[in-house]
Write a structure and sequence with these properties.
198 residues; alpha/beta; Metallo-beta-lactamase, Chain A; 6-stranded mixed β-sheet; 5-stranded mixed β-sheet; 5 helices
Length: 198
């Protein structure tokens, strides 16, 4: 699995947009965008990316949630590449598959589990790959330092579930990925959440 952040050097406010491709660009790999953001500069980057001969450059888009900074380019991406649009957001136009949580999706050359994580929004999801020990989190709050907020039970349950996973890299919707002490960070966040949810 290869992960490229297409908005690393964006000049406009946008979410991270991850292009996920297989290690060998095999025909059965599923070229995937996780979020689409709002910076049209990603179109040139997609067109110049190594996505495999004879393959759709983008076969599917998975939205971590529907907020505008993550989803604004959906109409343009749909028209240009005609991918399947997958999200837990039934209110969005162009969504082909609506997620509930618990689904297994093929992304590039790996299998990912969809984890429903309401809290930041009611359609937030995370995507977890056991083989890569990687989690794509969108804007789901996973680094929680304060103990004075309140959290809904579904989010607390989701965080508890995520904290049990073997995770070595967390790709956030904004900023750089976390590549060290992921387990400790998640357990600390869970402790802070539980202390404020009692």
């Amino acid at each position: 699995m290869k992960v490229e952040n297409l908005t690393r050097n964006s000049k406009v406010y946008t979410s991270n947009v991850y292009l996920i491709t297989g290690n060998w660009n095999a025909l059965n790999d599923v070229n995937t965008l996780i979020d689409v953001g709002r910076d049209t500069a990603i179109l040139e980057r997609i067109d110049n990316a190594s996505t495999g001969v004879g393959k759709q450059r983008v076969e599917q888009v998975i939205l971590t949630h529907s907020h505008y900074d993550h989803s604004s380019l959906i109409p343009i991406i749909k028209k240009r590449y005609n991918p399947k649009i997958i999200a837990a957001a039934p209110i969005l136009q162009n969504v082909d598959i609506i997620l509930k949580g618990g689904e297994l999706l093929k992304i590039a050359d790996r299998e990912f589990e969809v984890i429903y994580t309401p809290g930041h929004s009611n359609d937030s999801i995370c995507l977890y790959c056991e083989e890569e020990k990687a989690l794509f989190a969108g804007d789901t709050p996973l680094v929680i330092l304060a103990r004075y907020n309140t959290y809904e039970p579904l989010f607390v349950n989701a965080l508890e579930y995520i904290a049990k996973k073997k995770i070595e890299t967390i790709y956030f919707g904004h900023g750089d990925p976390l590549k060290s002490n992921c387990k400790k960070t998640l357990l600390n966040s869970l402790e802070n959440v539980k202390n404020t949810s009692r």
